[in-house]
Amino acid sequence: MLEGLVQSTTIPILEQVASFSQARHTVLAGNIANLDTPGYHARDLSVEDFQSRLRESIEARRQQPLGLSPGETAFQLSRNMAEVSKEARTILRHDQGNVGLEYEVTEMVKNQMQHNLALAIMRSQFQLLQAAISERV
Predict the structure, then answer these.
(1) pTM listed for this prediction
(2) What's the average model confidence in pLDDT over 97-125?
(3) How far is CA 109 from the centre of its chain?
(4) Exposed site from 100, 108, 121, 131, fewest CB < 10 Å?
(5) Residue (of 66, 61, 82) closest to 12 by Cα position
């Protein structure tokens, strides 16, 4: 019963957003750590791909009959997050590296803001659930 209650909120979606931003933060930090590594090419997780897969999962969840288990259409994004895009977004330097510090820091800040927003919304969802369970308003 409690699982169905949690699944009926936006908490599973927010969990996927937080997980994705955590994984992306790790990749971006690796890019910065390898800033001076000759031949290192910047990596990133595709935000657009994640958003389209999340959108598909949300649509499938909306069309799910209430009698089915939420796990049947649960988000299968964790395995897709392992795919790393090989796109070069900065200028290739003479040492064949393409990591741009300004770009990577900007992406990390945007990613951190997305992560913090997902956690703040998730926190408020848990507070609402707690109030509903304890019959307080």
Answers:
(1) 0.71
(2) 91
(3) 14
(4) 131
(5) 61
Q: Which whole number is the average pLDDT over 64-81? A: 46
Give 44's strand partners. 85
The answer for residues whose C-beta is within 8 angstroms of residue 97's C-beta and 6 or more apart is 34, 35, 36, 37, 38, 39, 40, 41
Yes or no: say if 75 and 36 are a contact pair by the CB < 8 Å rule: no
**Number of domains into which the chain is organized:** 1
Query: Average of pLDDT values for 53-65?
Result: 81
Single-letter code of the amino acid located at 98? N
| Per-residue buried b or exposed e for 57-96, using 16+ beta carbons within 10 Å of the residue's own CB | bbeebeeeeeeeeeeebebebeeebeeeeeeeebeeeeee
Structural domain for 10, as ranges: 2-133
Residue type present at position 13? I
Query: Cβ(53)–Cβ(74) under 8 Å?
Result: no
- 118 confidence band (pLDDT: 50, 70, 90): very high
